[in-house]
Amino acid sequence: MRAYYYDNIPGDQRLPHDYIPSRPVSDETLSSINVKYWHIPVDGYEAKIDAIAKERGYKNRDTINVSKEGMGDIYEEKIKTFFEEHMHEDEEIRYVLSGSGFFDVREMPTDAWIRLAVEPGDLIVLPAGIYHRFTLDEKNAIQAMRLFQDEPKWIPHNRGDVTDVNPHRVEYLKTIGVGA
């Protein structure tokens, strides 16, 4: 996984949006906002993913295929929805099996976008309460395993005044030392 600051230049969300020169994001910065990641080669990944799932209490999983072929008529609508800034009340855990894409997360307290370029073998964990969004890159396809601590659910809470005071958002900010 490559992490860098998003350039905020309008245009196709599927492009890298990397500053020139690039502004890489350090492991320490990702740790400070509680974003976790591992690289686990896809060949023979099962035992390693199972071990991490057991250690972190992930009880359920499924696989999602985000592509025109995999999603059919709802593809364009879903891609737009995924790119709306939102948070979840649960961790978002993804292991990339094939393809590639971008997760953008908000750095706090600066509110800058950090772009996480993911490819096969990358496992990321976004904490509950972090504002983020997702998009494919120009290859237009990703297959990822989704892991869940409990029953699979994926409820986005779009950023706004109500979400800013959501208990999961407030708790997230407290855990990273931002806010009261």
TrEMBL record:
<feature type="binding site">
    <location>
        <position position="86"/>
    </location>
    <ligand>
        <name>Ni(2+)</name>
    </ligand>
</feature>
<dbReference type="GO" id="GO:0005506">
    <property type="term" value="F:iron ion binding"/>
</dbReference>
<keyword id="KW-0223">Dioxygenase</keyword>
<keyword id="KW-0963">Cytoplasm</keyword>
<keyword id="KW-0479">Metal-binding</keyword>
<dbReference type="InterPro" id="IPR011051">
    <property type="entry name" value="RmlC_Cupin_sf"/>
</dbReference>
<keyword id="KW-0560">Oxidoreductase</keyword>
<feature type="binding site">
    <location>
        <position position="86"/>
    </location>
    <ligand>
        <name>Fe(2+)</name>
    </ligand>
</feature>
<feature type="binding site">
    <location>
        <position position="88"/>
    </location>
    <ligand>
        <name>Ni(2+)</name>
    </ligand>
</feature>
<protein>
    <recommendedName>
        <fullName>Acireductone dioxygenase</fullName>
        <ecNumber>1.13.11.54</ecNumber>
        <ecNumber>1.13.11.53</ecNumber>
    </recommendedName>
</protein>
<feature type="binding site">
    <location>
        <position position="88"/>
    </location>
    <ligand>
        <name>Fe(2+)</name>
    </ligand>
</feature>
<keyword id="KW-0486">Methionine biosynthesis</keyword>
<dbReference type="GO" id="GO:0010309">
    <property type="term" value="F:acireductone dioxygenase [iron(II)-requiring] activity"/>
</dbReference>
<dbReference type="InterPro" id="IPR004313">
    <property type="entry name" value="ARD"/>
</dbReference>
<feature type="binding site">
    <location>
        <position position="92"/>
    </location>
    <ligand>
        <name>Ni(2+)</name>
    </ligand>
</feature>
<keyword id="KW-0408">Iron</keyword>
<keyword id="KW-0028">Amino-acid biosynthesis</keyword>
<dbReference type="Pfam" id="PF03079">
    <property type="entry name" value="ARD"/>
</dbReference>
<comment type="similarity">
    <text>Belongs to the acireductone dioxygenase (ARD) family.</text>
</comment>
<feature type="binding site">
    <location>
        <position position="92"/>
    </location>
    <ligand>
        <name>Fe(2+)</name>
    </ligand>
</feature>
<dbReference type="GO" id="GO:0010308">
    <property type="term" value="F:acireductone dioxygenase (Ni2+-requiring) activity"/>
</dbReference>
<dbReference type="GO" id="GO:0005634">
    <property type="term" value="C:nucleus"/>
</dbReference>
<keyword id="KW-0533">Nickel</keyword>
<feature type="binding site">
    <location>
        <position position="132"/>
    </location>
    <ligand>
        <name>Fe(2+)</name>
    </ligand>
</feature>
<dbReference type="InterPro" id="IPR014710">
    <property type="entry name" value="RmlC-like_jellyroll"/>
</dbReference>
<feature type="binding site">
    <location>
        <position position="132"/>
    </location>
    <ligand>
        <name>Ni(2+)</name>
    </ligand>
</feature>
<dbReference type="GO" id="GO:0016151">
    <property type="term" value="F:nickel cation binding"/>
</dbReference>
<comment type="pathway">
    <text>Amino-acid biosynthesis; L-methionine biosynthesis via salvage pathway; L-methionine from S-methyl-5-thio-alpha-D-ribose 1-phosphate: step 5/6.</text>
</comment>
<dbReference type="GO" id="GO:0019509">
    <property type="term" value="P:L-methionine salvage from methylthioadenosine"/>
</dbReference>
<keyword id="KW-0539">Nucleus</keyword>
<dbReference type="InterPro" id="IPR027496">
    <property type="entry name" value="ARD_euk"/>
</dbReference>
<dbReference type="GO" id="GO:0005737">
    <property type="term" value="C:cytoplasm"/>
</dbReference>
<comment type="function">
    <text>Catalyzes 2 different reactions between oxygen and the acireductone 1,2-dihydroxy-3-keto-5-methylthiopentene (DHK-MTPene) depending upon the metal bound in the active site. Fe-containing acireductone dioxygenase (Fe-ARD) produces formate and 2-keto-4-methylthiobutyrate (KMTB), the alpha-ketoacid precursor of methionine in the methionine recycle pathway. Ni-containing acireductone dioxygenase (Ni-ARD) produces methylthiopropionate, carbon monoxide and formate, and does not lie on the methionine recycle pathway.</text>
</comment>
